[in-house]
Design goal:
CATH superfamily: DhaL domain
Helix content: 55-70%
GO molecular function, one term: glycerone kinase activity
Number of strands: 2
GO cellular component, one term: cytosol
Number of domains: 1
CATH class: Mainly Alpha
CATH architecture: Alpha Horseshoe
Shape: globular
Structural class: mainly alpha
Number of helices: 9
Protein name: Dihydroxyacetone kinase subunit L
GO biological process, one term: glycerol catabolic process
Distance between the termini: 15 Å
Strand content: under 5%
CATH topology: Serine Threonine Protein Phosphatase 5, Tetratricopeptide repeat
InterPro entries: DhaK_L_YcgS, DhaL_dom, DhaL_dom_sf, Dihydroxyacetone_Kinase
Length: 216
């Protein structure tokens, strides 16, 4: 299937995510220190390092994308504390259920992203504008849908989603948090970029980068 993304891409995405999360660990810690518990970067770095160990221990390559995402989900849920573990774990688990396929076309990539967002909304009870990771995921999904409708390749769909997620993360800076730990700060939460939205942008950028490499 020309232009599709298979299990090898999902593994590459996961490995790139782990690398990027570790590289940005201090940045995520500092962002979370400003408006949260200060553990977002540490928790994600620990979680994805554990995911890498699980991947390295596999006897055979996963057969489909969903198998990779389920491994990520279960590992994050069991190793990541705070809000990030349940939220990202649910996102990956929902995404795994719609990607039990050997390869993803553009519509399947959109389904992956939509399922991830749905999982986060259901688990976190958050809506756009509340200064959470939903503020990066929502524009990412909207951009993915538009790109797929315009005939973009799977890699193109992810590139559009990643760019929108970056913009969504940056747009959380002036917002006043009304959900999660940051909401305790009230007006003082304004002026700080949300760490969850920031890590979302990093994760989706890793997806887009590895998809572009796979398509090259």
């Amino acid at each position: 299937m020309t232009g599709t993304l298979g299990a090898a891409w999902a593994v590459a995405w996961t490995r790139r995510t782990a690398q990027v999360v570790v590289e940005h660990r201090e940045e995520l810690i500092e962002l979370d220190r400003q408006i949260g518990d200060g553990d977002h970067g540490e928790n994600l770095a620990r979680g994805f390092t554990a995911v890498l160990a699980k991947l390295d221990a596999l006897d055979a390559e996963p057969e489909d994308v969903g198998a990779v995402l389920k491994l990520v989900a279960t590992t994050l849920m069991s190793t990541v504390g705070g809000a990030a573990g349940p939220l990202y774990g649910t996102a990956y688990l929902r995404a795994a259920k719609v990607t039990a396929l050997p390869a993803l076309d553009s519509a399947a990539v959109v389904a992956l992203l939509e399922a991830g967002l749905e999982g986060i909304v259901v688990r976190g009870k958050a809506n756009p504008g509340e200064k959470t990771m939903v503020d990066a995921w929502t524009p990412a999904v909207e951009a993915a849908v538009a790109a797929a409708d315009a005939g973009a390749s799977p890699a193109g769909v992810l590139a559009a989603a990643a760019e929108a997620a970056r913009g969504g993360a940056e747009a959380t800076t002036p917002l006043v948090a009304t959900k999660g730990r940051a909401s305790y700060l009230g007006e003082r939460s304004a002026g700080h970029q949300d760490p969850g939205a920031t890590s979302t942008a990093l994760i989706l950028d890793a997806a887009a980068t590895t998809a572009a490499e796979a398509a090259a």
